Each structure stands twice: as structure tokens, then as C-alpha cells.
Amino acid sequence: MESFDFIEMRFPAKAEYVGVIRLTISGIANRMGFTYEDIEDLKVAMSEAVTNVVAHAYREEDDGEVTIGFGVYENRLELMVADHGGSFDLNEVKAEIGPYESTESVENLREGGFGLFLITALMDKVEINNNSGVIVLMTKYLDEIEVGFNDGHVSTRQ
Amino acid sequence: MNLQIHIEEGNDKSHVHLSGEIDVYTAPKLKDALIPLTSKQGNTIEVNLEQVKYMDSTGLGVFVNALKSSKENGSKLKLINLQDRVLRLFQITGLQEIMDINATIRGVNE
């Protein structure tokens, strides 16, 4: 079986802790050797997932917690964000995601609903489990090829 | 992990300098600062994001909200000096086509 380290942390589902969670993922991803760009992507994706939990807890006046997990593999980082409070309507969330079309009028612009869209845009794989509460599982792979070989002749063959 | 908001108000132009991070914690404060400025008819609001080191969808939501308010009230909203990482979020979401975004600065590592 593939070996990996697993780190789990629990935070109050409050807005002021989202920045602390970003610092944590930044540290772990940096240790694993992710690039600056990838670390920034990971910070946004993680914040989006945690923000969903925080916003939900706030609406429900629920002093909930958010559980985050890091699966540290040799070639990838798996992030888990679990909302152990109530559950929200996943279909509703999915219906709201997507980029803006320039044909949409300003009056119809959505103010929310970008979170899940950004997560899917920034991570390599995203899975959502909505059975008991919501669990978001996000994966990002370490690039095998160093950034900087942009002459169009990069081969992945060894 | 906070956001500093500095506002210089002229007759028909407001300069807003932001410094720090825009996330779920700081976004409400930013919204409270921007909406009154966009509510003034004929006002031009220039938001300088040069010192914004982190932003996510909560920030996009605030700027969309401010854009709507400016359209409703006859004011103009401009975003200037975005870091590459922040600009990228406007590009991915298609918002760059809709908002008035000027002059970008290259990120330190790009």
C-alpha cells in the first residue's frame, strides 16, 4: 500500500481562522516542494472550501467546526474539508458555479457561487461527498517537470 | 492576515488603497467601505490593489457587488495595479471582460 502522512486539524467554523488554515497549507505544500504558483492555487482552493463551511455555519447560527485533513503523498497532496454541522444543498451549489459569460448583463451577475468553480479550476481532482454533512476532497499533483522549460521541447520520457 | 483600507475622497473621484488579504474575514469590511463610494452619482472609484497579496472568491463577490452598485447609481469603478495572482482569478472567472481593470504589476516570482 502506498505510504503517506496524514495530518488532521479542527478549527471553529469562523471566518477569522481561514487565514490560519492558509498558513498551514502553505507550510505543508512548501515542505513538499510545490511551486510558488501551485502553493497559491492550493491556498485559494482550501480557503474556498473552508469558506463554504464558515458561511453555512454563520447562516445557521451554528457554532460548528470545520475539520481539515492533509494527505501527504510522494507525488501529490490530498486536501479534505469536512463540515460536520448540517448539510447544504449540493445541487444548488453546483447550479451556481461556472464562469461569467460576457453576454450576461451586469444586473444578472452573481455575487457568490465562484467558490466551487475556482476549486475545480485550480485543483487536479475534486470529489464531493454529501451524505452526512459535506466532505470536499481535493487533489493536487506535484509537477514532475521543473517550471522554466518552456521552449516547447520538453519530454516527460526518462 | 488583515486588510487595511485607506480612502482619499475628492469631489468626483475616490482613491481606495488596499493592503493585505481579501478573504471571508476581511471582505465584509471592504464591502462596507466600497458601497457608499459607489452610491455617489458621478463618482469615479479607483481601487489600487498593488498591496493585495491574497484574494479569493469572497473578494470577487465584493467587487461584483460594487460594480452593480456603481451601475445603479451612475458611478464608475476601476481596479488598478493587480498582482498577477489576483488578476488570474478575474481571468478564470471571466470577470475581466466585465470589469474595468487597468495596468497590472508582475508578481515577484513570475
UniProtKB/TrEMBL annotation, chain A:
Highest taxon of the lineage: Bacteria
InterPro entries for this protein: Anti-sigma-factor_SerPK, HATPase_C_sf, HATPase_dom, RsbW
Record flagged with keyword Membrane: no
Enzyme class: transferase
CDD domains in alphabetical order: HATPase_RsbW-like
Family annotation (SUPFAM superfamilies): ATPase domain of HSP90 chaperone/DNA topoisomerase II/histidine kinase
Gene Ontology molecular function: protein serine/threonine kinase activity
Task performed by this protein: Negative regulator of sigma-B activity. Phosphorylates and inactivates its specific antagonist protein, RsbV. Upon phosphorylation of RsbV, RsbW is released and binds to sigma-B, thereby blocking its ability to form an RNA polymerase holoenzyme (E-sigma-B).
Name by which UniProt lists this protein: Serine-protein kinase RsbW
Encoding gene per record: rsbW
Automatic annotation (TrEMBL), chain B:
CDD domains on file: STAS_anti-anti-sigma_factors
SUPFAM superfamilies linked: SpoIIaa-like (SSF52091)
UniProt keyword annotations, A-Z: Phosphoprotein
UniProt cross-references to InterPro entries, sorted A to Z: Anti-sigma_ant (IPR003658), STAS_dom (IPR002645), STAS_dom_sf (IPR036513)
UniProt function note: Positive regulator of sigma-B activity. Non-phosphorylated RsbV binds to RsbW, preventing its association with sigma-B. When phosphorylated, releases RsbW, which is then free to complex with and inactivate sigma-B.
Domain STAS intervals: 3-110
Organism lineage string: Bacteria, Bacillati, Bacillota, Bacilli, Bacillales
Keyword hit for NAD: no
Stated name of the protein: Anti-sigma factor antagonist
Family: Belongs to the anti-sigma-factor antagonist family.
Superkingdom of origin organism: Bacteria
